[in-house]
Amino acid sequence: MFNSIKHTKVSEEIANQIKRLIIDGELKPGDQLPPERELIKQLGVSRPPLREALNALAAMGFLDVRQAKRTFVKSVTSKLLEDPLSLLIKADDQKIFDLIEVRKAIETWAAFQAAQKASSEDIEHLGAIIGEMKRAFEEGRSWEKQDADFHLAIAKATHNTIHMHIMSGIYDLLRESVGRVFRDRAKIKKLLDQHYRIFNAIKNHSPDKARERTLEHLNYVESEVKKATGQG
Fold this sequence. Notes:
Layout: H1 10-23, H2 36-43, H3 47-60, E1 63-65, E2 71-73, H4 78-91, H5 95-117, H6 120-138, H7 144-157, H8 161-169, H9 171-179, H10 185-203, H11 207-228
Antiparallel strand pairs: 1-2
């Protein structure tokens, strides 16, 4: 009836603890883990089992270990969504409109939820991203990253772990779908203004207004993509 109890390896305990933090949303897609030295101190373990745990989590798709031994939480949906969707859109340009339709559904919901649930830290983070996008625009620098970061930050402000991972999984598609269309500075300025309106609705905890502003924004994106592809 009963099975013998087996001792869990230290590396498995470390991996399970980190995985639980990811599942619970304490660690979010894109979050950077502390340096090895700090993790060793916090967990009270030695370097070998820590590295074994991190490598195991990376192999499972929970973590992304980059150069200089920096470790980031990875979207668990990235390989399920990003690569196949990217190939689908490249094979048929019309699929970009399917992506926008899906974005309308999930991002209007997200804006509504974020306006209800956003913490002061979430709102501060959104404001900082818009500020950086504005500086990039004024200085003539690339702004696409901040644009995608803004939408991802709204997803994080919902405090819905599954939604955060889904949005993180299509992060690069968000950048590509907007960046290749918006080159005119007047149009980029309009995008920025729309972001401010969404931000203000979330900051003021106005769910219906946040949803409305997000739909206006995505309808504008859709109209400009249609013009760029000769369909507008």
